Amino acid sequence: MPDTSSPFGGFAIDFGAAGDAAPLAAGAMATVPVTSAGGPFETSVLILGSGPAGLTAAIYAARAGLGPIVLAGYQPGGQLTITTDVENYPGFPDGIQGPELMLRFRQQAERFGTRVVDVEADRVDFSGRPFRAWAGGAEYRGQAVIVATGASALWLGLPSEERLRGHGVSACATCDGFFFRDKEVAVVGGGDTALEEALYLTRFASKVHLLHRRAEFRASRIMQARAESHPGIEIHRGVTVDEVLGEESVTGVRLRDVATGATSDLAVEGFFLAIGHRPNTAPFDGWLARDEKGYLVVDHETHSAIEGVFIAGDVHDHRYRQAITAAGDGCRAAIDAERWLEEHGVVEAATTTAR
Ligand code: NDP
Questions:
Q1: Dist. CA 332–CA 340, nearest whole Å
Q2: Which of 29, 104, 279, 308 is the most exposed place for a label (fewest CB within 10 A)?
Q3: How far apart are CA 69 and CA 42, in angstroms?
Q4: Model confidence over 289-317: pLDDT tens digits?
Q5: Ligand 1 in contact with 290 (CB < 6 A)?
Q6: What is the dihedral of CA 39, 44, 50, 52, to 10 degrees?
């Protein structure tokens, strides 16, 4: 299966030749080369995450002359890079592929001087300004930080699922669907993601089995109607997956009927997970509060409880979780960060976005 870690393949940004440039001045960052390899790399606005929230924040911050640095994370472009047709993002009446949409976000951010680095922040220190983050062995410093690290796909947690990952088990139909041409596959989940993946897989698979643990779907009605009426999809309601079968590669799944407890084996060669997401909050343990579901808590507007640290997108939003709402949140966070920097004398009022 293809390496999905960098769907933007070839777009990793090299910060240029090592040098001894002085720390960067706010407002001029887009044009000044970064210091020596390993950092610290300094910016007015450090953005963690490169989904719709992070890259929209970058577009706004860059256009305000703040020379943002984006640490793209382990999945540059975020969740949309592992989705297919996006039909509800305004401005694309014929729909657009998720990876292409995110590539456009990124190009737009870079056009105004954003520097995007394909590294994942593994640790932060938010004890004072400049705020600090470490990623890929380098240190990054921001006078303000926007946390937009999003959420990641969940797995069932079965040993057989783990063992056969990449050998027929996948959480990305877009990435791996091609490998299942004329084969039967199963998708587990009952939300929009599961139905979208099932529909996508009908392009390749001879048959798609949609496995859901309840009778009612969580997905939107339009997606339900499409899945239910699609001749290539067979829906199995009220079943859970006990085990993924197969030694070298997937040969089937063992299902359990939730009502009766009876088990049965279903022969498939591909098994796709689409059961939801977990917010990516690990680097912020001890710094930013989480709610009962594990999502970051926003204090007011996009401000966290730490002044100068802002939060945007799915890392705090488990209600809407849409590209458009995440993008809107990124915009808000950038404007909040810009005003906060202005109030603290880091940037001049002249650079700020019209209010
Ligand atoms: P959801 O949380 O909406 O759905 C997850 C599904 O997985 C639920 O049906 C849930 O079952 C099931 N599930 C969870 N854990 C397990 C488990 N351990 N075993 C079996 N089944 C399990 O996640 P999605 O990723 O589907 O969607 C997230 C958000 O993104 C939603 O708001 C959705 O609308 C949105 N979205 C929008 C799209 C679009 O508009 N184009 C495309 C994709 C997503 P149960 O229902 O029983 O809880």
A1: 12
A2: 104
A3: 8
A4: 999 989 999 999 999 999 999 999 999 99
A5: no
A6: 180
Cis, bond preceding 68 (omega within 30 deg of 0): no
331 belongs to the catalytic site = no
Ligand 1 proximity of 104 Cβ (cutoff 6 Å): no
Distance CA 66, CA 290 (A): 29
Distance CA(77)–CA(54), nearest Å, equals: 9
Nearest CA to ligand 1 atom 16: 275
Ligand 1 within 6 A of 158 CB?
A: no
* Nearest-10 Cα torsion for 91, 97, 102, 105: -30
| pLDDT single digits (tens) 233-279 | 999 999 999 999 999 999 999 999 999 999 999 999 999 999 988 99
Both tokens of residue 229?
């009426």
Judge whether 324 and 88 are in contact, CB under 8 Å: yes
Q: Catalytic one among 122, 175, 242, 257?
A: 175
Verdict on whether the full-model pTM lies above 0.85? no
What is the distance in A from the centroid of ligand 1 to the CA of 61?
Answer: 32
User: Hey, which of 86, 96, 193, 257 would you mutate to test ligand 1's pocket, going by the most ligand atoms within 8 Å of its Cβ?
Assistant: 193
Ligand 1 atom nearest to CA at 154 = 15
∠ CA(205), CA(207), CA(211), 5° rounding? 110
Cα 215 to ligand 1 centroid, rounded to whole Å: 14
Task: Report the half-sphere exposure of 120 (CA within 13 A, side-chain side).
Answer: 16
